[in-house]
Amino acid sequence: MDKVLVSDLLSQQGLDVLINSGNYQVDVELELSHQQLLECIGNYDALLIRSETRVTADVIDAAKHLKVIGRAGVGVDNIDVEAATRNGILVVNTPTGNTIAAAEHTIALLLALARNIVPAGISLKNRTWQRSDFIGVELYGKVFGTVGLGRVGREVTKRAHAFGMQLIAYDPHISANAAETLGVRLVDRQTLFRESDYISIHTILNADTYHSIGETELQLMKPSGRLINCARGGIIDEKALYHALKEKQIAGAALDVFEDEPATDNPLLELENVLALPHLGASTTEAQEHVAIEVAQQVINALNGKPVANAVNQPKIDPRVFDILGPYLELAEKIGSFHAQIVEGQVSSIKIHYSGTLFQKEDVTPITVALQKGILTPILTEVNYVNAPFLIKQRGISVTETKSDSQTDFANLMTVTVITDKGETILAGTTFGKKDIRIVRINQLHLNAIPEGYILLIYNRDQPGMIGLIGTILGEHDINIADMTVGRSVIGEYALTLITVDSLVPRNVLNTIAAQEKIDFVKQVII
After folding, report:
1. Which is nearest to 275 in space by CA: 257, 289, 262?
2. In this predicted model, what pLDDT tens digit does every residue of 360-376 receive, in sequence order?
3. Could you tell me which of 43, 51, 40, 50 has the C-alpha nearest to residue 14?
4. Which are the catalytic amino acids?
5. What is the mean pLDDT of the chain?
6. How much of the chain is in helix, strand and coil states, percent to nearest 5?
7. In this predicted model, what pLDDT tens digit does every residue of 280-329 receive, in sequence order?
8. What are phi and psi of 91, to 5 degrees?
9. Radius of gyration of the chain (CA)
10. What is the C-alpha separation between 347 and 335, in angstroms, rounded?
């Protein structure tokens, strides 16, 4: 009989799924110390956790019989996924369990913001009857803008549509056709902030989205515009938002998440036009039950060798195949992530061309899946090797593969073309060994770049002094250069410079580089 350890508080409904199956010994041991977990984990086949238990590499190394780790929730930052993968342990999460709760919470904030529900209720409880102080606005006919059309964003737009709102969205990783089926018109970021009466945020927090809504975006909004964030704290620059709300540049904001939590001392709480809640997006009885039941069922499937829908790490691959294709799986994922961060416009299709004898002999399906995962990883938290093809298809993006044994400058070469409404972007890569992965082409320019770390991609005029100019700007802001490569086709025309630096380049520094007369394009890529 397999033994299951539950080390964090889990809804009884989830525990019952395991217990009632009659096939497992379920031990609930809450508040284990790290040492206690180390001492007992070797006795178990499965581990179920929420966010409290930290499953570090030493815990995983001590788990001699562990087959699966189940996380009742989305984030897996408290699990060393790399160590689990190395030890052949499957990691599963529950990304969909709180979708409805988060979507309904967003709509609740939308209505409360429009009709001044909270201040009006507080006023009456203080025995004041001042109806004229709380005149609201209707939703019907208003423009509802969504930043991100992932699983929660989709559910929110469905509900906003029921109110007769006009729906627009910004999400470059969904096709226009897929958005049209939701009744949503895709627009660029500037248009969304200019046209929307209400804006709801539904993106993940990463280096690219951190403070991505700041002074520039808030200045584009209508004076009657209102902003809602039930996604992640840190996406909105709270200092810029405070100023915009205090100066009445926008009408109001509803915030369920903050950059630093608990946010009891946040200056935004002082403002009357802010509706603030203590991160309640997933706090429903049903959501807690759903994630518990979902993770329990996934653990059962994993223990019985059945398919698992939400595997976070690499499913089991034949060791021989992994030994041969392993470096190309990593290359594909990095090329995908690189593409996602530099592409312009709405993605409609992806073309992958494999050239070389290795690709002729081997099944490249795992590599194609790794590429799709890489493309989605910068914008989604729930993407994995199992669901990546489904999510790509759901977004209306077509994927095609071709093979050839034609000779190139490399024994094996993977070329990926991403097509958007603004053109196409091409990246090609190869490996020179199991750990030597390179990008050798970006569009028509050839180079030799290691896709790792913080990378600046710069298109500039091919003239003397350009490297010195860029280096000086970075040096003035204490940003150290670790590596650099340049690609060019004709001397004196355009060059592509890739600079790897030791730390994240702040947005203001990127803007300074982009403002230089002989620089046409700057992007930061984080791999």
Report:
1. 257
2. 888 899 899 999 999 99
3. 50
4. 232, 261, 279
5. 91
6. 35, 25, 40
7. 988 898 998 999 999 999 999 989 878 787 888 865 555 666 677 888 99
8. -115, 125
9. 25
10. 15
Short-list 181, 123, 189, CA closest to 157? 181
CA distance 23 to 185: 50
The residue among 204 and 266 whose pLDDT is bigger is: 266
Average pLDDT over residues 249-269: 95
Q: Region 58-71: what's the mean pLDDT?
A: 95
Q: How confident is the model at residue 248 (pLDDT cuts 50, 70, 90)?
A: very high
Q: Which residue has the tokens 């709180």?
A: 98
**Spatial contact of 356 and 403, defined as CB atoms under 8 Å apart:** no
Mean pLDDT score, 230-239: 95
Residue 258 pLDDT? 95
Closest CA to 224 of 198, 251, 190, 203: 251
Q: What is the 3-state secondary structure (H, E, C) of 425-474?
A: EEEEEEECCCCCEEEEEECCEEEEECCCCEEEEEEEECCCCHHHHHHHHH
Task: Give the Cβ contact number of residue 279 at 10 Å.
Answer: 15
Distance of CA 357 to the CA centre of its chain: 35
CB of 188 closer than 8 Å to CB of 170: yes
Q: pTM for this structure?
A: 0.78
Q: CB-side exposure of 34: number of CA atoms within 13 Å?
A: 8
Question: Is the CB of residue 379 less than 8 Å from the CB of residue 148?
Answer: yes
Cα 43 from Cα 36, distance rounded (Å): 12
pLDDT of residue 381: 73
Please state, in angstroms and rounded to a whole number, the distance separating the CA atoms of residues 235 and 51. Answer: 22
Q: Who contacts 70 (Cβ-Cβ below 8 Å, separation ≥6)?
A: 46, 47, 48, 49, 92, 93, 295, 296, 298, 299, 302
